[in-house]
Amino acid sequence: MAESLLSVGLDVGTTSTQLIVSQLTISNRASSFAVPEMEIAQRNILYRSPVHFTPLLEGNLVDGDKIRAIVEDEYKSAGISRDQVDTGAVIITGETSRRENAGAVLSALSEHAGDFVVATAGPSLESVLAAQGAGAVAHSRDTGETVFHMDIGGGTANLALIENGNITCTDCLNVGGRLIKVENGRICYISPVLEGLCRFSVGDAVTAADLEPVAELLTQALEMAAGLREPTALLSRLRTAELGAHPGCVVQNAVISFSGGVADCIDTQHPTFAFGDMGPILGQAIRKSRLCQGRYRLGQETIRATVIGAGCHSAQLSGSTVFCQNMTLPIKNRPVVAVSENDLFEAGIRQKLSGQDTLSVLALPEFHAPSYEKIKSLASAIAQAMPSPILVTVEQDMAKALGQAIALRRPPGESILCIDRVRLKNGDYLDVGSPIGPALPVVVKTLILER
Fold it and tell me: CA–CA separation, 63 vs 69, rounded Å?
């Protein structure tokens, strides 16, 4: 029998704040005589909120009280309460994630939004969610085409290279329609990322023609990221600080795909300052650029791509061969420490775990069909090195055997959770929810703001 999860996605972006409610239907695709293989078989959006301008206080700080009020109102409109929510994501994106009070806003939203809605941030995760929510991943999977997806919002452009339905590379540039805001024909805000790239100051009177060179410069950076223009120092300068010295994606013969608020200004002309920023000007610069001279497409979702990705695609399921002993669920925001076969002895695991302020997930990404002797050896090393409670993830279907072997080597009744079919790397964070049949819902996050 199919089961379902109620999922909430909330995106607090540079320009807009949106919420969706969706139903994730879980089914077993294995035969009656095989080990269950649980999957999210269907994602149905039950409610889409209106697009709200992200409320800001003086100094461009996010107004947490007003964000909370938006969420409360939208829960009422959707006809749900917080105790009904099973999973989802609260994500602060773009320039908003760099506000000094973003952590406090995340904390307030996470507490309000339900027991398993998580607070996440980070350009890599946003790129993935936007590509999924816009339908770019599905397009690549269905057609076999390579797609380079660009989600261009108010403060950042989140980029994802998709090959045969798999996201193989992500990138993020400080390119967006709200880097310059205009009120009554005068500039009221200029993002610090444009320092040295823009001759204007706050208070200057401007027209569309005045801002076109800025839009063209930002568009050139996007062309460089897409492999359509020789890269210069401009590309490195506009790459977000979180990514550091990012090598970029190697893009060849790709369909260019767009989402985000600026995507709505590519094929449709809006009044110049219809949204109080340079978004329409940037959209038209992109339309005239090399990005749209070849094959390009607008996403199935544009301005809502990220929030749909957060609400429908942030959760996944573990495998069904799970070992869970006296572990309290849900588990939230557990940092990941990944180890290789060379590290898998007691001293090596201890060294990897040293310096961690909180209890960690031990991820074993490189093990493929190990022998039972290997599993026993691995269990002994983990049992000796890890503090309680023990949480281990593997990619192959060996979690139950490994968990049982660890339990035999630890005091009776100790808290141990071992799950499989989860791919993690150093720097990830993991949430684990309550069981759905024999599997567990999990959310993997690439970056998280400290709370």
Answer: 10
Contact criterion met (CB below 8 Å) for 145 and 316? no
Question: How many angstroms from the chain centroid is the CA of residue 96?
Answer: 15
β-pair partners for 412: none
What are the phi and psi torsion angles at 282 (to 5°)? -65, -40
Helices and strands in the chain, H and E counts: 11, 23
> Which are the contacts of 65, defined by CB distance < 8 A and separation ≥ 6?
none
Task: Tell me the per-residue pLDDT of 16-53, one tens digit each, with 9 for 90 and over.
Answer: 889 989 988 877 655 554 445 556 667 788 999 998 98
* CA–CA gap between residue 46 and residue 22 (Å, rounded): 5
The pTM of this model reads 0.75
Q: Rounded to the nearest 5°, which phi and psi values hold at 383?
A: -60, -35
> How long, in residues, is the chain?
451
- Contacts for 167 with CB less than 8 Å, ≥ 6 apart: 127, 128, 131, 137, 160, 161
Rg (CA), the chain: 23
Number of CB atoms found within 10 A of residue 389's CB: 15
How far is Cα 292 from Cα 358, in angstroms, rounded to an integer? Answer: 47
Q: What does the DSSP assignment read for 333-395? A: EEEEEE--GGG-SHHHHHHHHTT-SS--EEEETT--S--HHHHHHHHHHHHHHPPSSEEEEES
